[in-house]
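Hi Q.,

Before the meeting this afternoon, I wanted you to have the NAI prediction in hand. No need to reply - just skim if you have a minute. The sequence and ligand are here:
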Amino acid sequence: MQAFEAGHEQVIMREDVHTGLRAIIALHSTVLGPAAGGCRHWVYANPAAALDDALRLSQGMTFKNALADIPFGGGKSVILGTPGERLSTRQLETFGRWVDELGGRYVTAEDVGIHVADMRVIARTTRFVSGLGTATGLGGDPSPRTAEGVLYGIEAAVRTRFGADSLAGIRVAIQGLGNVGFHLATLLNQRGARLWVADIADDRVRRAVKGLGAEALSVDDVLTADVDVVAPCALGGAIDHRTACALRAPIVAGAANNQLASDDMGDLLSERGVLYAPDYVINAGGVISVAGEYLGKEDPAWVDSRIAGIGERLQAIFERAAGSGEATSRIADQLARERLARAARDDLRGNGGRAVA
Ligand code: NAI
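Predicted structure with the ligand bound:
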């Protein structure tokens, strides 16, 4: 789901003259529930680029949440940063007030450049926040749960492609050993997979080589390594035309958002016989965890079963793609649209239309 489609419910651009804070909050859809999606703090080339990011990311959240079986629509916010800037307490509190004024139609959490400590400051001025973690251990940093979901997705892909029920001996190349990538490497290592890793930060690579027995690859070679699975866990756009043509792995399954540089890359992977796990389906573990925290789901089964469901959902997408000959990315988009259309119809009929929490 890369191409931007019009139809956002509400987009707000605000500037605070006192603190210099500039932010955009984009609510793409509240059909399934409050628009949920993190807040990104990033230096953009210009405000139009920030708006484009907010529109695209919030639409992506609608699709992600729709397929994650959580009662939330899609939204996203971006804070327009300046190089080297750290957000002040007053700026974070101001942002919280803007979120609060939306009365719960938007729920925010961490994204790139916003950490748990920032969220705790934002939470002083709004309760429509998640990803803080609770005393009982609910939620908090979503990265480990994202990695867990990616692991289930890789298992489903390996089962589909190789008919194997175990990851023992499966060769996986991971691009990016950050919060999610390193957790994923650890989980794969525990399951007996063989690891190849690359990161622009050498210390992270050294840690994986030393601690997990991984082999280091250069950042230029990792996506085209001769392995069974390539797991993009760095930035978006990993699969462009050049990479899609040069890929040697029969499976692409990783955590990064917006892995396909354009929609037709999904078709190209499919034509080349590469099994692609659609990014917003496989990387939903974190948002499921954050949703459970927001809803106060103390029973771990609520979150655990949904994260485990990522594997089953992908399996269903792989099967439908095999049956129809369409790309897995197109099938995921269709399923998300179907769920949204069903909920909108239910709403019109007065059935509430909301997913059951
Ligand atoms: P992170 O910032 O902790 O890690 C990214 C890693 O990629 C860093 O170690 C960085 O040095 C490395 N990197 C950057 N460019 C690279 C390149 N060209 N080649 C190799 N390595 C490179 O980010 P995090 O949280 O681990 O997220 C990774 C991806 O997963 C992002 O695309 C993010 O949007 C996505 N994601 C993360 C979720 C989470 O729970 N943290 C949830 C859903 C998606």
